[in-house]
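[09:14] KT: can someone run the structure on this one? pasting the chain below
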Amino acid sequence: MTLAPGTTLQGRYRVLTRLGEGGMGSVYQVEDLTHPGAVWAVKELLDDTSASPEDVAWAHRRFDAEIHLMRQLRHPRIPRFEIAFAENGHRYFVMEFIPGANLEDRLARTHAPLPERDVLRWMMDICDVLTYLHSQHPPIIVRDLKPGNVMVTPSGEARLIDFGIARTYKPGKIGNTENLGTMTYASPEHLGQTQTDARSDIYSLGATMYHLLTNTEPAPMETPVSGSLRKLQPSLSAATEAAVIRAMRLDPAARFQSAADMRDALARCLSALTPTPSIPRRRNQPVILPRGATAAVPAVSPAARSARPAIQRAPATRVTPPEDGTLCPRCGYLNRQGARFCARDGAPLTAAALAHVSRVAHDISASSIPSRSPTASRAGGPTSPGGTAELNHQRATDALTTGRYIQAIRQGEAALAKGRATYDVYMLLGQAYAKQGRAADAANAYAQAARLRPTSDALIAEGEARRTIHQPDVALLAFTRARQLDPRNPDISYQIGETCLELGRLAEAEGDLRDALSQRPRHAPTLVALGRLHAMRKQWDDALAMLKRATECDPPNATAYLELGRTLLGQKRPAEALRALEQSAALAPASAEIQIALGVGFSAVGRRDAARKAIRRALELDPANTEARHLLKQL
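[09:31] RB: done, structure tokens below
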């Protein structure tokens, strides 16, 4: 039976969410109540009441064996074992929680082969783990190596999880007592003719690479022929293909004979790839996605947005994407030159698609920062404040610092007109426009800044502005480019998750939001976004757990109480919903969106007069709100 969020084990571990379920057990993410902020993973042995006594005994033996194995393993890329216990007739063990996403989920999200460079690095990490396991006395054989058992953390490190069927190698034994494993990635030895050994894991690692590099599952027990991988992924290097084929030889003696040998081969493949140079500054307009995607989640009003806590951004990390790459017209990922399909989401990179995007980009950018006549600028006309461009820039900076935003805009635009079209001036203008509620101008200013100097700060700011003016597709492009520059920034993962929610791309949203939450477990906006996601799926218990946790982490967060109230309404708990909505309205009384929800809450408990009052208040705050007008007619 699935443990409900909020369940406490041993009086210490509170269940946050279920991470997954296998043949033997479920794994949950839990919070350690004795160490606030600490998060663990708990594995539960599932007892199948319909199973025979022999099968139950077998499952218990496997669970005991996994606990015994985990106790003795000490490697930075293997989850650390903490404690085992039994409670209410069920058995559990606690281990280190590994943040990130497994490679099976990554493939499902991208619908395309994963980048060769990334796969080589991840598999080199796994070779390190296998070298450690195979060097134990006796050697430990994983036997179920596959994409779903490899986690990639937000820092880009690959880690091996799930040792439920791992076993020790027994010299002199002909076959395995139990032949287990996923057949797609299993070596011929898994069939029981011979005993699985270290080279069996080498085969499984090669089969895993085949799947990751081609987005196609390998044929079971079959060595790929030369050219077959490159037919599926033409950009794949010949050296990497050869390494995969060697690892998947049916004869163990023809494979790499150790994980260390395979790691050395993969390192040579990686070093042979073209190095990734920095991206040059270009004069052309930034490529921007066409509008037209419909938002699946109502946009939060400016007043409600202001109730959210300020997001603390991680320092920008200078990481540069490939030179002369091709931007994906769907997600914004910068692919290698000549790529035919996006490595992130599989979108075709055809000339027609890219030309269409460029035309749309030009149309959007045409409404960018107001241009000044060079002649008028030189003449010191009325539209251009006096002084040099440098002086105008300094005046704009001083005005922005002191909150004189209109003056900052005038001086910044004057600096542009006099030729100081620099990154700093565009960033300053973007901030000033945003403070004046000119989100469209702010978005274009940030886009110009990112064109001159691609930084995560400029792209994040552009994405936030695009979301404000209801351009989630364009925002997603900006955030995706930002993540290429700063892959460890949790704010970017959060923003991508929020944007995917608006676009109705729930699976992608969940992956990015969980990545963000793993780095900031008490970040209320991320918890709220995950709560909304679960509510959209009608996973009410998970939604309530996330939203209640958000209100605990950030009690003044009006949006958290708003979404909690909406979720409780969806679960038909109107009295509780109304209390949450009243708390939200008290925290953000100037939000029309919250007043509308409050009116719905009052109506749900039969307080129609109070409902009408709340809806009228919403119309006072936002006279053009059609939803409020419709609700008022119904009341």
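[09:33] KT: thanks! Residues 166-181, 276-324, 356-368, 370-384 have pLDDT under 50 and may be disordered.
[09:34] RB: yep, looked fine to me
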